[in-house]
Specification:
α3 crosses α4. The chain is globular and about 65 Å long. β10, α5 and β11 form a beta-alpha-beta unit. It has 310 residues and is an alpha/beta fold. It contains 7 helices and 16 strands. The chain starts with 7 loop residues before the first strand and ends with a strand. The protein has 2 domains: 147 residues, Medium-chain alcohol dehydrogenases, catalytic domain (Quinone Oxidoreductase, Chain A, domain 1, Alpha-Beta Complex); 124 residues, Rossmann fold.
Length: 310
């Protein structure tokens, strides 16, 4: 129990791995920044599929309880530890992975893993950018190495990673084929997709033509039907762990789960911020919830991204 004089903050924690009922809102001690760290007053925290998986026990062997979730966020520096190069009053954004802790009024993190928020980028959009943006950047540009004229399929193109991946692939000059529910077709086309296919249509994979790259953000098993469409020597990138490997007789390479665990994060975050500032990349936030509705928020499916406000 905190001492009576200890500053408290509102946070959402997990006491046991499981469903949304395990998310408990309570007052906990406010963290104190150590050397090289900053205390950030959180303005918005993003919702990611991985947060729900962690709540369900995906990383139970690596994390301790009670656990405060929330992977990426934006906010304002409240206090700085010795040696931190960010000063109080600075607007920042970043990703707390795999430690997490953004579902709270305050969070502490290494200053080197945070980037300054551009003035033209709102707090909601900044919070939505780190995990999805870095994942899309790695998938399309680093691992995928998308080039002019390539045929690229992005599964789940209306989601957080998908809607950013479509834009990055088009920037490289690719012919982008995207899957999304019919209700999201106009949204995905507006992002730049050349073809949009309803993933609910039976045997849609048979109509894709030959693909150079598949980026799959739907499920661990959805790659199975897509491998025959990948050209010999082509690449499949799965955002799920473990991904389904190519069947015998299919000459395709597989890159498994992508994480944002590269360090430090400031460099890739600044690169994403530049893309947004110059108009190359647009992050879409379509829902915002109070922290008290985190259970509903985690179970919701939205176009683009959703955030919570502590």
């Amino acid at each position: 129990m905190p001492s009576p004089a200890e500053p408290l903050m509102n946070a959402v924690q997990i006491d046991a791995w499981g469903g949304p009922e395990q998310l408990v809102q309570r007052y906990v001690p406010r963290p104190v920044p150590g050397p090289g760290q900053v205390l950030v007053r959180v303005r918005a925290a993003s919702l990611n599929a991985v947060d729900r998986r962690v709540r369900q026990g995906y990383m139970a062997g690596r994390l301790s309880l009670p656990y405060t979730g929330g992977s990426d966020f934006s906010g304002v520096v409240e206090a700085a530890g010795d040696g931190a190069d960010l000063t109080p009053g600075t607007a920042v954004f970043g990703a707390l992975w795999p430690t997490s802790g953004a579902y709270a009024e305050y969070t502490v993190f290494d200053a080197a893993d945070l980037a300054r928020k551009p003035e033209g980028l709102g707090f909601d959009e900044a919070a939505a950018l780190p995990v999805a943006g870095i994942t899309a950047h790695v998938a399309v540009l680093d691992d995928g190495r998308v080039q002019q004229g390539q045929r690229v399929l992005i599964q789940g193109a209306a989601g957080g990673v998908g809607h950013l991946g479509v834009q990055l692939a088009k920037k490289q000059g690719a012919h982008v084929i995207a899957t999304a529910s019919r209700a999201n077709h106009d949204f995905v086309r507006a992002l730049g997709a050349d073809e949009v296919i309803d993933y609910r249509e039976p045997d849609y994979a048979a109509r894709l033509g030959e693909l150079d790259l598949v980026i799959d953000g739907v499920s661990a098993n959805s790659l199975s039907a897509l491998y025959p469409a990948i050209r010999p020597g082509g690449l499949a990138i799965s955002l799920f762990d473990p991904p389904v490997p190519p069947p015998d007789g299919i000459d395709a390479r597989l890159v498994g789960t992508i994480t944002v665990a590269q360090q430090p994060l400031r460099t890739p975050l600044e690169a994403l911020a530049r893309l947004v500032t110059e108009g190359t990349l647009r992050v879409t936030v379509t829902a915002a919830y109070p922290l008290s509705e985190i259970a509903t928020a985690q179970e919701s499916s939205v176009r683009g991204k959703a955030v919570v406000h502590p």
